[in-house]
UniProtKB/TrEMBL annotation:
Keywords annotated in UniProt: FAD, Flavoprotein, Oxidoreductase
Protein name, entry field: NADH dehydrogenase
Pfam families tied to this protein: Pyr_redox_2 (PF07992)
Database matches in InterPro entries: FAD/NAD-bd_sf, FAD/NAD-binding_dom, NADH-Q_oxidoreductase
Membership in a protein family: Belongs to the NADH dehydrogenase family.
Keyword field contains Oxidoreductase: yes
Lineage: Bacteria, Bacillati, Bacillota, Bacilli, Bacillales
Cofactor: FAD
Amino acid sequence: MRNLVILGGGYGGMRILHRLLPNNLPEDVQITLIDRNPYHCLKTEYYALAAGTISDQHIRVSFPEHPRLHSKFGEAVSIDLEKKCIIFNDDESINYDDLVIGLGCEDKYHNVPGAKEYTYSIQSIEKCRETYRKLNNLNAGATVAIIGAGLSGVELASELRESRKDLNIKLFDRGNHILSSFPERLSNFVEKWFIEHGVEIINHSNITKVEENIVYNNDERIECDAIVWTAGIQPNKLVRNLPIEKDNQGRVILTPQHSIPSYEDSFVVGDCASLPHAPSAQLAEAQAEQIVQVLQKKWNNEPLPASFPPFKLKGVLGSLGKKQGFGLVNDRPLIGRVPRVLKSGVLWMYKYHNG
């Protein structure tokens, strides 16, 4: 029996499972799913869990069930591409014939002293729960610093404002405007929302050091009661440790078939893959669709696709609390109520089709 191992049950791994199961998995192939959690997590909604506006169960989706789908819930410690096995901390290993690595990303601290030790995170559900407990146990009038004003930082800041109107929220951003990768009209709308809702935006910030409850911005000491880091991501540590070629962001350079060069049975999907777009759930799912095509050709002993069409991504949607939002859909900026409703609809459809 050929064993396909899916290492990581994120958006890419979940899409592969749903494309192969229940009816598209050859009789001589079984799947082993490896994940830290016994459920798929909706990472795009971690900001709301941390802010306390949704409960844990709202961002959990069950993995599919199938007689030839086996699960190992634990944390792998290394990947041996030569021996084709996944190794765990109890020295147990799982061998594979085909491997899909979908381990996602971790915080990147840019060598800022103390950032890893003294900040909270929303990059994993475990860390998100810790952040939720910290933020929602703060006393009235406490100060929260959010480092990084990209999509995650903006959504967390706005959601936290709705959850805890009594908190002082400081949003640190390196640029002239938050959401610098978006059109200026959209950035201005989001900044105006924050000003109207009492969130302080600190532009041109440069976090030089973090101590317990202290942020140093351009070496100026700012006392806080909680610090959340949303200022960058990097591939999972297991992928960073692999002795293979990577781009300047540490993501794995792949063949047109999404496999690792010299290891044609090993694929990388999602945030750890070097792709011509910013990491996103949508991109991971689009890539997973192509990986499924490669696997099916491979299992049928058919020629593999020489290339694939460019990914067609629909856009990006972000929330400003429960009533307002922003986004780019087919390169068209959207602000106000409509993008927030669209985002809620996309989430509902995802949970409906996968739950």
